[in-house]
Each structure stands twice: as structure tokens, then as C-alpha cells.
Amino acid sequence: MNPTRRTVLLAATAAALLPALPAKAATATATALQPYATYWYPDSLPSGSPGAGITWRSLKPWRAADDADLAFNAASVPLAARFTPTPANPTARAGQARIQSLVSFGPTAGNPSQGSATSDYYAFGHWAYVDELVFWGGSSGEGLILAPNAPIVDAAHRHGVPVLGTIFLPPVAYGGLLRWTRDLVQKDAAGRYPLADRLVAVATAYGFDGWFVNAETGGGDPALGADMLGFVRELTSLSRARGQRVTWYDSMTVNGTVSWQGALNSRNQAFFEAADDMFVDFRWTAGALASSGTLAQQLGRSRYALWAGVDVEAGGWNTSENWDAIVPRDKPHVTSIGLYRPEWTRNHLPSDQRSPQDFHAADDRFWTGASLDPSQPDDTDAWRAPAVSVADRSTVTALPFASVFNTGHGLRWYEEGAVTSETAWNHLGLQDRLPSRRWVARTEGARPTVSFDFADAWRGGSSVLVAGAPDAPVTVDLYTVRLPISGDTVVELTHRTDEGEVGVELAVATAEPAAPGATPPYTYLPVTGGDGWRTSTVRLTGLSGAVHALGVRLTGTGPVKWRLGGLAVYDTRRTPCPPSGLRVTAASGGDLRLAWNPAPGAVRHYTLHRLLPDGTRRFLGGTCQRAWFVAGLRPEQGERQARLELRAVGEQYTSSDPVTVTHAW
Contact at 8 Å (CB) between 518 and 474? Predict the structure, then answer.
């Protein structure tokens, strides 16, 4: 890979050029209570001292039982199964090209384990188009092996997307040392690769899905190439036994040298065969991709196990690419797509224009295209957005199902329409399963604007806002689903009209559209209105089988603003049992580490509130884990101790009774 692409990997390279220290942890500062996403070197560490906020660790001696931050970093949401509905447009295909996304969500060091107090975050939500997410990063001065933090894994798994950690052996130009490569592929007395076993143990303990192996340190020889091949084979074998996977990056060749091929050929074929798939470097050509796909098939593998690299770090949707070489419109796709650094949709925004609203507008443009409607692609758009070529997927297959359209970040926190925290926040683990086709709005008249809005919400930090001056009914597609219908099945909509008069109907389809891009065969059921937030319950009277699609039809004239705060489908209302054993495990002033025992039965997440002396409750945070870090609490209203309440929240957003703990000042 061309080193100029490595803007995320430049930190502290000089320290990595010095002789090694023994393989023990080193840190620049005393251990703090704030947990962070974890990163390691394979074995030996740089010499000298790490920079501020950086901890040097060796993976070789790691054991789950000794990992003090594991409770904060281990994902809890299992990988959901997906299905592919009838595509949203005629050019989107199922069973052909897939999308891998390589994303740097934060720095290698100092990336908080469980979100933070800012809404300025890459709160990705177009999971329906992605087949594999790589937690990208690493640098020679911080660490080379990165485990993804739990909120990202939980959000991805909820949408059926596996997440890979990264093994990055950097180019010499960026401080890479060949001894780190040799550390990674070292053998024990039995000829096994101990770090392969350790990597699989990390992924198992942390709850993610495997590893992206990127060996770019030059200077190797055939012996090192053979050791790397043996390591990848063992890593893949051990990974598959635990339901994990391995992606190889087109960098090191079988003779141990680093030479990016931009193709599958005899110089990297053995690594492709040893792994589950391969990221093809950006220097590919149309001919190279065509021959690579053919070779993959000759090897008994799918051509779509090759991710053709598309570098969008600098240009986003302005990137010029030969799309017909990967996903031609008029014949089968050639390979899959590997998107490098699509968080450009956040990073390119000026610092004073990074509101959640600004970010989602840019992210919709990137993933959906210039039309901002995946059912109507803009054929004149030079950027071939993923929605144009790749069919979306869904995981909504069981009752109960509910969404409050929480995108995983917000300007404040809402509960039943009331603000319970004025603090901005991000935590992807709290993200809902979001509408995948953003935004299909079907009308014969003027099309309104449909977007996530952060100025008000029913729960969480966001709602769906439909705004405009419609002169004909508008149907907004919300979810493609496979939900069974019984005599007790109901749909709840929590909604509010902010401006004008709007008639609302629930749109329910019990079959697929007649063709890709066609309107689902909706039945329209009336929804009661009223002032303020209102929860309307609609029985699916006369319908049977299974729900295939859900939407809303709005009828209004003149300027209107209508807000959707929640949607739920269920046949019985369930309330979770409370957790137990809430306790403070460590404290430093107003910084607390909390832990608890899980609630029995199904739980979506947990919420933590502070109960103030005047009886008000303030939201402190939410998590899918069974541990939480609270920062900066101070005495308020003359209290002698802080009183904290923890609740389990179910899939229908019903909450358990609280359990409490106090912290004396």
C-alpha cells in the first residue's frame, strides 16, 4: 500500500525505531479508572517511554482472567442472522458483490470503551449494505493489534455484521520493525504458533468475529514468508473452530517480501487460500480484477471473497473510480468492494458543522447516492453508492421488535419525550436497528424531506422527522421484516405533529413487492392522532401470515412537520426482571467503576440514573455490558451520598424495577 494512505498511523513512530524492552506492560501515566479499547504489540515492546495516554502491552502473556478492563470491552450482543428482501431498485443485486468497510472510529490509544460525552462521532448506521466491518488502526508508537470496543460490535451484531480486529505490521517508513513480524509468527517447541491461539482467545473473550491481517513491514525473506503462511493457516483453522474468520491484506508475498499486487496471483494465492478472503490493494486494474475473480473460482472459491480496495479517505463520494471494473451494471459483478475509511463522511465536515444532523446528511449521500432515495438511483451520479449495486439486508425476524430510532449519538437524552440529561453523548451499543432504505418516500406529488432529527425525541437522542408541503399522500418505507402475525399482534406508533395537520396511516405489507424497486403491497390502517406525543396502537385485523414491510402513509396539505419517535410490534407486553448486585468496584473522587449481576431473561441494555435529593432522575448512561464507568460526579443539593439506580431495558423499551447503590462523599 502507498504509505500516503496511512494518515491514521503516524503517531509516535520514532520510539518504535529503538531497541526492544522486555515484553511487559509500560504506561506513561498511572492507571486511571477510565477504560479504553485495548491494543497490543505481539511480544516485544519499543524502548523508552510511551507518550501521554498510551499504554504499551504485549499480547503474548495476555489472559482474560488478568484483563482488568474486559468487563467494559466485551461485546454482549450475538451476531444476528440476516435475510435479503426484494431489492429496493433494479440494479441492486443479492448474492454478488459484498461490501467490507475499514473504519477508524478513534485513535489507537485513548479510545473510550463505552462511548463519550460528545455527539461528534462516526455513528454509522447503514449496516444493511455491509458484510464485514474492520476496526481499523494501529501505529508503531502505540500498538499494532487492536480489539474493537464493545459498542461498535454490539451495534454491528444487532444488524448482522461481523467485526474484525486489526493486526497491522506497518511499513518501515512508518516505524515498522521486522522483529514485530517475527514476534507474531514465532513458534513454540511443538512447532505451533502461540500468538494465533492468543488472538483467537482475545476475539472469543471480547465477543468479536476474527482478524484482518495486514503485514506491510518490508525486509523479509522466504523463510519469514513460510512462517507467515503457517501462522495464517493456523490462525484461520483456530478461528473457524470458534466461528471466527480471517481476512488477508494483499501486501506480503509468499517469498516474505512486501509487494502489493493489486490482484490475486501466484505471489499471494497461498495466503488467500489460507484465509477466508483477501483485500486486494488499490492498484488493481480492470484486467487484474477480472483475472483475479477467474483464479478464485478455479481455486474453488467465490470471486466475491476478494474485496477490491476503494480508497475514500480523502475524497468520499468525490472519489473517481472505475466502477464497471467491480460492479458493472449490465453483467455479473466481478469482485466485492473494500471501502477504505468511509468515515470521511464525518471527517471532511468543518469542526463547526459536525452536528449529528450534518453527519447523517453526509452519510446518507455516501451510502444512498445523490437521489437520497435508494428506490430511485440517480443515473447521472458519478459516485456509484453502495445502495445502487448491493441489495440491503435485514435482521428483523422475531417478536417483539421495537425501535425508537436511536442512532447511537445525540445532543441530549430523552425518556418519554422529556429531557433527562442535557449532556451530548455517543454510544453505538444503544443504537436501534435502523430503517435500511433511507429514505424511500413514495408520492405522486411534492416529496417531503425525511431525516433523523436530534432537536427532539421520544427516547434516546433522535426521532424521524418528515417535513415539507406535500400535495399528495406520501408513503415512507421504514422496515423490511419477517414478523409472524397472530390474533394478538399489534403495532404501536409513538408520534407527534409539530406543524400543520397530518393524517396518519400504518402501512403493512404481508408479501414481497412484485419486482425490485416496486412498491410493497401495502394495506393501510388508520392511526389515531392528538396533541403532543401520542402512542397509537393498531391491531392487524384481517391480516395473516407474516409482515414483510412496515411504513407510514401521511396525508396533509401546506407546510407540515410530523415526527415518529417509536415503533413496536408485539403480541404480548413483556417487562424485564431487574439486575442484582449493583456495586462500586473502584472509586477516585467522583470517578466510579460500577458492576452488577445480569438480569435473568432477555435484556436489550441497562440504564443508569442518578436520583437527586429533590426527587428528579438524571440519566448517566446506558450500556449492553454489565459494567459502567461514571466520570466527574460531584455532591449536589447538599447530599451526603450519591444515589444511583440501575434498570434493565427490554426489547420493547419497558424497564425493570431499579436496583440502587450509594457512594458517600
Answer: no
* Domain spanning 3-108+123-389, CATH class: alpha beta
Burial code (b: 16+ CB inside 10 Å, e: under 16) for 154-178 equals: bbbbbbbbbbbbbbbbbbbebbbbb
- Which cell goes with 481? 421484516
Burial class (CB in 10 A: 0-12, 13-18, 19+), 655: middle
The helix/strand count (H/E) of the chain reads as 10, 35
DSSP 479-537: EEEEEE--TT-EEEEEEEEEES-EEEEEEEESS--SSTTPPP-EEEEEE---SSSEEEE
Of 13, 12, 4, 1, residue with least CA distance to 176 = 13
Distance CA 34, CA 628 (A): 10
Q: How many CA atoms lie within 13 A of 121 on its CB side?
A: 26
Percent of the chain with pLDDT over 90: 94
Residues of the chain with CATH 3.20.20.80: 3-108+123-389
Whether 489 and 475 have beta carbons less than 8 Å apart is answered as no
Helix axes 222-241, 194-206, angle to 10 degrees: 40
Nearest one of 495, 491, 409 to 454, comparing CA atoms: 409
Query: Is the distance from CB of 474 to CB of 430 less than 8 angstroms?
Result: no
Q: How far apart are CA 164 and CA 138, in angstroms?
A: 14
**Per-residue CA distances from 484 to 225, 397, 401, 523, 568 (Å):** 53, 8, 11, 16, 14
Q: Read off the amino acid at residue 109.
A: A
What is the grid cell recorded at 502? 397530518
For residue 381, the model assigns a pLDDT of: 96
| DSSP string for residues in 526-566 | EE---SSSEEEEEE-TT--SEEEEEEEEEEE-SSEEEEEEE
Q: How does pLDDT run across 547-606, given as a tens digit for each residue?
A: 999 999 999 988 999 999 999 999 999 999 999 999 999 999 999 999 999 999 999 999
Contact criterion met (CB below 8 Å) for 68 and 205: no
Q: What is the pLDDT of residue 4?
A: 40
**415 Cβ partners below 8 Å, 6+ apart?**
459, 619
DSSP string computed for 65-76: GG-TTHHHH---
The β-bridge partners of 309 are: 338
> In this structure, which amino acid lies at residue 398?
A
- Would you state the CATH architecture of domain 580-664? Sandwich (2.60)
pLDDT of residue 13: 32
Question: Could you give the 3-state DSSP secondary structure of residue 154?
Answer: helix
The answer, yes or no, to whether the previous bond of 439 is cis (omega within 30 of 0) is: yes
Give first-to-last CA distance, the chain, whole Å.
Answer: 54
Mean pLDDT over residues 130-154, rounded?
98
> 52-83, pLDDT tens digit by residue?
999 999 999 999 999 999 999 999 999 999 99
- Per-residue model confidence (pLDDT) at position 529: 85
Q: Long-range contacts for 534-539 (Cβ within 8 Å, ≥24 apart)?
A: 534/494, 534/495, 534/496, 535/492, 535/493, 535/494, 535/566, 536/492, 536/493, 536/494, 536/495, 536/504, 537/490, 537/491, 537/492, 538/490, 538/491, 538/492, 538/493, 538/506, 539/489, 539/490
Band (pLDDT 50/70/90 cuts) for residue 150 is: very high
Determine the pLDDT at residue 3.
38
Alpha-carbon gap, residue 477 to 540, rounded angstroms: 18
Q: Is the pLDDT of residue 535 over 80?
A: yes
Domain boundaries for CATH 2.60.40.10 within the chain: 580-664
Q: Which CATH superfamily is domain 401-570 in?
A: Galactose-binding domain-like (2.60.120.260)
Tell me the pLDDT band of 32, cut-offs 50, 70 and 90.
confident
Q: Considering the chain, what is the average pLDDT of its residues? A: 94
